[in-house]
């Protein structure tokens, strides 16, 4: 039985879980959202590492044999510590996002957006440079998560906030945008409007691609998912199921 | 020795601590910000109660003999539980905010703004109705905290977000605005611009007034403050001290 644990600070990682579920890579997916302590993006590294290890301990109870870190912030600061404590593969959205660029021109203009902690960790930037990419602009966009949570996925306010964060960027010239936070794919339409020539890198799709090419997993006929959270589990299950069923 | 414990989910309650400190009501103030789990506003009631009781346990180590709950969300859902566990007075910002209206006309048009959890708890609204106020409009404004944290205290984006939240309100007719979140006093200038005729109720000033009139405390010559937080204590101390010294 192949069982994949997925964790995120909250509900955002459902965008990743959904892609893994659709790809039927595992018999079962166990999702854990640390909603009692969300968000991770503005907290200290040692705190994020502690929370990530606690999530791993929780998921180990389900005999998982694969772990996906769907939280960009945890991927940025806790992936090595998680690997040290796990006897199975641990895959983070950051590595997957960078892997998704393997066939891109090294001179591409890349825009990386994420939480303050993800951008400050320099993890994406280091991996991209190691792969030979030279033109990387990174911008922390902390208002995007509350915008998504308020349902402001497009419109005047969202446009103004995009203009504010990207005022010093020649938007036409951006070739690739790495959506470095699991909430951001919900803003895809606005990203495409402001950056007409950019390819958007979505963590969930990148993770699925990386699992398929790196690990020799048998294709299953149908995956199932179990949902857990550290706060308000019933409300969480209802909202997560809605997101999973949305445009599936 | 009179020692007052103050707690909030994060740094916002410093706006309350600062007023108490300035008023020299206690020999010492012990401030605890639960920054490892901030914000409380979108979390479940049982979780907020558990976090509040843990904050009380922490503050009891300092032999406090007064507790101020500077977090509106915790005041809304955990005040009774805190009183059950404390052998000293426990005062919340909500009761203080309502008390500050004791001389106002009962027909005043009151606008209450706060987090989703604070508004949904109905705590302010019930207390206001009990006091005889009839015209209360309450609106959850979850984007205001991230706006303050991004430093967008005024300007076009902030104005647009105000227009969005208050589009169904006759702004000229609002007499009183209860700033039901400790972050919101930082938006006072924008509130005054959009609501030219309103008196703003600030939790910190309301708490000081209520302590002065309700408890017979000897006036001290100078109060001191000690700062603690559950995440990144050094960074927290630096930022909190800056806020305390700001326009003191």
How are the strands of the biggest sheet of chain A laid out side by side? 4-3-1-2-9
Which fold name corresponds to the CATH topology of the largest domain in chain A? Rossmann fold
Largest interface: A-B, 23 and 23 residues
Estimated share of beta-strand residues of chain A: 15-25%
CATH class of the largest domain in chain A: Alpha Beta
Largest sheet of chain A, in brief, is: 5 strands, parallel
Give the end-to-end Cα distance of chain A, rounded to a whole number of Å: 25 Å
Helix-strand topology string of chain A: EHEHEHEHEHHEHHEHEHEH
Helix content of chain A: 40-55%
The mean pLDDT of chain A is: 93
Question: What does this molecule look like?
Answer:
Two copies of one chain form a homodimer. The first copy, chain A, has eleven helices and nine strands. Chain A is of the alpha/beta class and 248 residues long. Chain A has two domains: 131 residues, Rossmann fold (3-Layer(aba) Sandwich); 107 residues, Rossmann fold, CATH 3.40.50.1860. In chain A, the strands form two sheets. Chain A has a five-stranded parallel β-sheet with strand order 4-3-1-2-9, with helices on both faces. A four-stranded parallel β-sheet of chain A has the order 6-5-7-8, with helices on both faces. In chain A, helix 9 links the parallel strand 7 and strand 8. In chain A, helix 1 crosses helix 10. The longest helix of chain A is centred in the first third of the chain and has 16 residues. The mean pLDDT of chain A is 93.
